[in-house]
What we know:
10 helices, alpha/beta
Amino acid sequence: MQIARILRILVLLELLCAAGLATWLGADAGWSWAAAVPAGLAAPLLVHAGVVGLNFGVASLAGSPTPEAQRLSLAGAASTYFREVADSIRTFQFALPWRHPAPLAGAGPSSSEVPVLLVHGYFCNRQIWRPFAAWLAERGHAVEALDLDPAFCSIDDYVPQLSEAVRRLRERTGAHRVALIGHSMGGLVARAWIRSTGGDLAARVVTIGTPHRGTFHARLGLGEGTRQMRMDSAWLQALDASEDAELRSRFTVLLSHHDNIVAPQSIQTLAGARTIEFSGIGHLSLAYDRRVWAAVDEALAWAD
């Protein structure tokens, strides 16, 4: 089942629960309907905010020590949390379930900039890239994004889908090589594709919030892919051993010391790759943050 369809079902179930709560508050609990209806509608959002808060709590306990220069004030931590809540709601309640069929922006085949293939992460779809894809297109990049389905399979099962997306992008643009940008698990999918194909077609690889060493949160997920993303799994170690220094020189790794899904945070690097560190950005917010976009743009400028 497509991730968009699963999310639509979940959102509709949330709305049914919200309606049930509002009805109970207004009909049985003595609340005025003017108060009961907003309270019912707010309940799913508050639950969502609670889940994000729980993720931050787990990431704090399982995380690596934050460098002193990257530490946040109380106000900074609150801002990071509320922004991640907003980005999580916009992603999972609106963009992914309801905008799924809509095409993303993309430059035409005459562009002189390196073509870009966007690879989303676990339990997502290509709509998470919509703002960033438009931004890249404005800068002259031909952009392609794919949906990785089904949701809970092995990361290696996505390699043929990525190969087909690369073929389409090369055919559309006439370019020999493309740049791959992967968010979260998407970075591992890109690396698995390179292991399978040899990497000659990858001009540049940028990973954003990718669990290169694994994440504690993978214990809480479903499917073979989450088992592969556990801390220092055999799959991750084999992937690491397959890459040489020349390949790694084409990698840029972007990580946040306040990632609430990928923890420990500071160890998510690749030997021989360039690493750029951020603070005050949650896991989903990494896909929407303009500081991250600027860092990606700089990395793409190095592409052949």
